[in-house]
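Progress report, Aim 2. The chain analyzed during this reporting quarter is listed below.
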Amino acid sequence: MNQVDQYEGMHYEGMCIRPPSEAYSILLQATVGCSHNKCTFCGTYKEKRFRIKGNDTILSDILYASRYMRNQDRLFIMDGDALIIPYPRLMWILERIREHLPWVKRVGAYANTKGIKMKSEEELLALKDMGLGILYMGIETGDDQTLEAIRKGADSQRMLAMGKKVMEAGIKLSVTVLLGIAGKERSLIHARATGKLLSAMDPDYVGALTLMVIPGTPLADEIAAGRFELPDNLGLLTELREMIASTDLTHGLFFSNHASNYLPVRVRYPQGKQQALDIIDLALQGRIDLRPEWMRAL
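Predicted structure tokens for the chain:
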């Protein structure tokens, strides 16, 4: 019996997330949960104990995809930070993808600074040559005080070094930032520091999401205790404007089109920066409607 016949379906466990740009990709869950799993704002993986799935399960899913997902030419490896998989096993996964899904043009994964640091420059180059084309890293903010407060596990300099390491290997880098994560008090400090970090890193893509408070997280407890206050919608829009104004990329795209955001903006740097600022100014003046609360989602 062929391995794919033993289980007619993908072995997904718990809630699985992927970047918006991977909406039409084959989703291969090679890890369960997040190896860090300490960020105060994140509730995604609280019910999952981190582990790497067995090779038999991973291969079964690849074989299933080889039969039923022949029209999808991108693949995303889940869960939270798949790059943490040790190099030999990650290479084995990429080799099986190339063997059984030869039409897949690009493989992507989430990565944190620990996973990137664990891979040498030579290993990243080899992973790239085997199909790893893009990594998604959540930097959230360039403000070190906020990074410490949210227990991100890295400061801005480590974020910068690891981001550059990815791009030097020829792997595209997409980073996410979080509007509102510094609270009302440090909103503009966060915006400017994040713009400074993004400018120094110069990634291929930046995705701005707006913080949505998840019940049961440490951040939700801080808000309930009155120790953290979110900016209102205009405050968040002002923060977005300051972040874009403080960011200078040589070639990248800056998106705020996630469903959590009040105003979708797409900025092609450097030429589109002023136009984006003008659009945000119109929204701040009430001349462009913001997304209503009932339409916002993670």
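The radius of gyration is 20 Å. Residues 1-5 have pLDDT under 50 and may be disordered. These observations will guide the mutagenesis work planned for the next reporting period.
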